[in-house]
Amino acid sequence: GRMAKTKNRKRAEALRERDGDLCWLCGKPVDFEAAPNSATAWSVEHLLATKHHGPDDLENLVLCHPPCNGKLRDLSLRDKIALREDRLREQWLEKLVSKARLALAA
């Protein structure tokens, strides 16, 4: 109900203050004004899933877009970090290729 929404919003604001406005998984901006559960909205992800006895402490929580949260689901922390590292590696390669194309075009 309303109390849970207020608690979640306060947690989200605390996470935003700690980590900034980017989704933990994809690294793209989280829109705090977006409709709930929309692709760019915010959601709170447990790094160590509650299914695996992960606590509700802020230290175990990060901001994610709802679709990114869905990709992480109840995966182990190791698998979540591997997914994030894959995403970071892909972004790094895209930037490298883009810079190489610019250098070759000059």
Write a concise synopsis of the structure shown:
By secondary structure, the chain is mostly helical. The chain has 3 helices and 2 strands, in the order H-E-E-H-H.
Could you describe the largest sheet, including whether it forms a barrel?
Answer: 2 strands, antiparallel
Q: Helix-strand pattern, N to C?
A: HEEHH
> Strand fraction band?
5-15%
In angstroms, what separates the terminal alpha carbons? 58 Å
Helix content: 40-55%
The oligomeric state of the chains shown is single chain
Radius of gyration: 16 Å
Low-confidence segments = none
- What would the principal axes of the Cα set say about the shape? globular
What features would you describe in this structure?
The chain is mainly alpha-helical and 106 residues long. It contains 3 helices and 2 strands. The protein has a two-stranded antiparallel sheet with strand order 1-2.
Layout: helices, strands, pairs:
Layout lengths: L1 H18 L23 E4 L14 E4 L1 H7 L4 H29 L1
Antiparallel strand pairs: 1-2
Descriptive terms for the model:
106 residues; mainly alpha
